[in-house]
């Protein structure tokens, strides 16, 4: 006999049930973000104990994202067919195995295989709740829930920094991953008990009137294509900076010590947490006034270009507050994710969200690699360290402005009331 609750009054959840479902999904997503970011904090220990080189650490980070990306397209299909509850429970079982494998690994190959496995296992932790929210919550509440899910992700990244450093003397890195495996198991119990079953009848009824779009139709959808450039460059770039390049800038350009840079990243992630919390508060009110996601992006995203221009201009004088300003002003683009799901039929929500998530993570890969590649290229031209970083960030900024221009052109050409 299943322990899951059944949604009241059809598909829409009662407020009390919606809060419980959100919280249990939020725990899983918090843990996934912590697991994603924790290797950066553990890198000195892993390097010393297992004799890892810098390239090995980079490959470990990439291994997680490789496993994550592998699952995105099949994940969307499975979410639409089987529902969030069954899919996330199956995936988190893989994540538990990945954490346990990391805890017992004795070589770099073992660590890498465990990271790929873990990336695959946690890859449903955001897509599963967003797919469910598309059916279980009204549109304005979906925007709030999306922002607050991202807030829990920022909280997980905050927890992966100083709190992990404080915990390490008591657990060691292997004990830490055993603890994470146990916490993921605990979240699975909550998901099993609280997340509703996926009702098949409404999905079939909708399919009889409107064919459910496949991935080819989703990629060709005008609204998806409108949001694609900013998802790839601006959203992906925000994550790339937050998770990688802000730290090296603080150390190599602004002159921070390693501990000062760690505190700076802690502050940046804390600012991101607060900004997503605020988005969750104001989104329903904005929706009630008819202010759509694409309109907010058109108004607000240019603020990130101002912050980026200030960073390039100030160079060594640009510390963590300006990077926090860039990341916070870039959160306007996070509104594109639930907006894409709302623009397509509910029966295709999993595929739409997973396809867009794949775009975002492709952008993370591309921007992380491109900024590093540009820094190396500028070094061949004889530029000093500060000039190399400033040049690379400037090129990224120009690409972001170009992506925004493509988005804005499509937005201005869009008929009033379309795509929603």
Plain-language structure description:
The protein is mainly α. Helix content is 82%, strand content 0%. The protein has 17 helices and no strands. It has helices at residues 15-50, 54-82, 84-104, 108-121, 127-136, 139-159, 162-194, 200-209, 215-220, 222-252, 258-288, 293-300, 302-314, 320-330, 336-343, 349-380, 385-413. α2 (54-82) packs antiparallel against α3 and α3 runs antiparallel to α4. The longest helix is centred in the N-terminal third of the chain and has 36 residues, at 15-50. The protein starts with 14 loop residues before the first helix and ends in a 7-residue tail after the last helix.
Question: Got a strand count?
Answer: 0
Q: What's the mean pLDDT score?
A: 87
Q: List the total number of helices.
A: 17
Helix content: over 70%
Q: Over all CA atoms, what is the radius of gyration?
A: 21 Å
- Main sheet overview: none
Beta content: under 5%
Structural class: mainly alpha
Query: Uncertain spans, ≥5 residues at pLDDT below 50?
Result: 1-9, 202-208, 416-420
Write the layout of secondary structure elements.
Layout: H1 15-50, H2 54-82, H3 84-104, H4 108-121, H5 127-136, H6 139-159, H7 162-194, H8 200-209, H9 215-220, H10 222-252, H11 258-288, H12 293-300, H13 302-314, H14 320-330, H15 336-343, H16 349-380, H17 385-413
What descriptive keywords fit this protein?
disordered N terminus; mainly alpha; 420 residues; disordered C terminus; globular
């Amino acid at each position: 006999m299943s322990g899951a609750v059944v949604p009241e009054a059809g598909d829409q959840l009662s407020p009390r049930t919606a809060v419980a479902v959100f919280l249990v999904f939020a725990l899983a997503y918090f843990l996934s973000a912590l697991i994603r970011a924790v290797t950066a904090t553990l890198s000195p220990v892993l390097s010393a104990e297992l004799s890892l080189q810098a390239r090995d650490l980079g490959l470990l980070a990439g291994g997680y994202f490789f496993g994550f990306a592998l699952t995105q397209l099949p994940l969307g299909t499975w979410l639409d067919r089987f529902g969030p509850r069954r899919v996330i429970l199956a995936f988190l079982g893989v994540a538990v195995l990945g954490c346990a494998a990391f805890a017992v690994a004795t070589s770099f190959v073992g660590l890498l295989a465990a990271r790929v496995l873990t990336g695959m296992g946690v890859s449903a932790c955001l897509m599963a709740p967003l797919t469910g929210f598309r059916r279980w919550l009204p549109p304005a509440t979906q925007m709030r829930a999306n922002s607050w899910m991202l807030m829990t992700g920022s909280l997980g990244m905050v927890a992966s920094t100083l709190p992990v450093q404080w915990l390490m003397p008591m657990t060691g890195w292997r004990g830490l991953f055993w603890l994470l495996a146990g916490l993921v198991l605990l979240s699975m119990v909550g998901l099993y008990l609280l997340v509703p079953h996926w009702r098949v009848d409404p999905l079939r009824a909708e399919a009889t009137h409107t064919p459910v779009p496949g991935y080819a139709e989703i990629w060709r959808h005008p609204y998806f294509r409108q949001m694609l450039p900013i998802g790839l460059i601006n959203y992906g770039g925000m994550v790339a900076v937050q998770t990688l390049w802000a730290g090296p800038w603080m150390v190599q350009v602004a002159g921070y010590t390693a501990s000062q840079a760690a505190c700076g990243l802690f502050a940046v992630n804390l600012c991101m947490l607060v900004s997503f919390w605020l988005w969750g508060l104001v989104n329903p009110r904005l929706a009630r006034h008819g202010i759509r996601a694409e309109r907010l992006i058109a108004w607000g995203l240019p603020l990130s270009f101002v912050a980026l221009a200030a960073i390039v201009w100030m160079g060594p004088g640009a510390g963590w507050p300006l990077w926090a300003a860039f990341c916070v002003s870039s959160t306007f683009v996070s509104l594109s994710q639930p907006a894409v799901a709302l623009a397509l039929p509910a029966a295709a929500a999993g595929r739409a969200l997973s396809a867009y998530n794949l775009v975002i993570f492709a952008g993370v890969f591309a921007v992380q690699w491109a900024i590093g590649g540009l820094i190396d290229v500028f070094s061949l031209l004889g530029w000093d360290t500060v000039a190399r970083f400033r040049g690379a960030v400037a090129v990224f900024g120009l690409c972001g402005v170009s992506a925004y221009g493509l988005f804005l052109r499509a937005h201005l050409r869009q008929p009033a009331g379309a795509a929603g």
